[in-house]
């Protein structure tokens, strides 16, 4: 696993979205027009807290568009479950599949496995958040070890606003 600090270059990734497009961070950065990236790893379509969070993000997606931030959500949930989720929720942001756990490992997302200290819906990743600038440098990161304590859309907007105002 790779652990990185703020202002480090984010690990590259190449994942396929439910929209069947390939999302390669290096390519997105190369074609970039000063866009920042907010990467959100979520547990799965089965998680009520995740669905609430994604619904909140969809309700405020205009903020991210207005501030030139590409929102990308990532999970290792089953593709068929995610397709149903997209049909039910009509999210406008991409949902990327981390089928091989490559993003999870590169970004050191916590995985609640068999060795977890408590039962929690079987094995799965926990929520994680990464804000990258237009060059792919990490401006913010947060990794959860359980489904609670995650920043809601309002807190993410406050964090982004604070970082933009205080960039060196």
TrEMBL record:
Entry superkingdom: Bacteria
Q: What enzyme class is recorded for this protein?
A: oxidoreductase
User: Which residues are in the Thioredoxin domain?
Assistant: 4-165
GO terms of molecular function:
peroxidase activity
Entries under Pfam families matching the protein: AhpC-TSA
InterPro entries named in the record: AhpC/TSA, Thioredoxin-like_sf, Thioredoxin_domain, Thioredoxin_ResA/DsbE_sf
EC number(s): the record gives 1.11.1.15
List UniProt keywords, sorted A-Z. Disulfide bond, Oxidoreductase, Peroxidase
> Under what name is this protein listed?
Putative peroxiredoxin
Organism in which the protein naturally occurs: Jeotgalibacillus alimentarius
């Amino acid at each position: 696993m790779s652990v990185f600090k703020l202002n480090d270059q984010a690990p590259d990734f190449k994942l396929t979205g439910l929209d069947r497009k390939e999302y390669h961070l290096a390519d997105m950065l190369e074609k970039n027009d000063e866009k920042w990236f907010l990467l959100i790893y979520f547990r799965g379509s089965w998680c009520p807290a995740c669905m609430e969070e994604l619904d909140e993000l969809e309700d405020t997606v205009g903020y991210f568009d207005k501030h030139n931030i590409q929102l990308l959500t990532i999970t290792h949930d089953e593709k068929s479950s995610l397709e149903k989720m997209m049909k039910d929720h009509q999210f406008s942001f991409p949902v990327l599949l981390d089928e091989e756990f490559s993003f999870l490992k590169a970004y050191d997302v916590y995985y609640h496995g068999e060795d977890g200290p408590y039962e929690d819906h079987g094995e799965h990743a926990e929520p994680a958040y990464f804000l990258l600038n237009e060059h792919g440098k990490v401006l913010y990161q947060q990794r959860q070890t359980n489904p609670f304590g995650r920043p809601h859309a309002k807190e993410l907007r406050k964090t982004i606003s604070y970082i933009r105002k205080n960039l060196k």
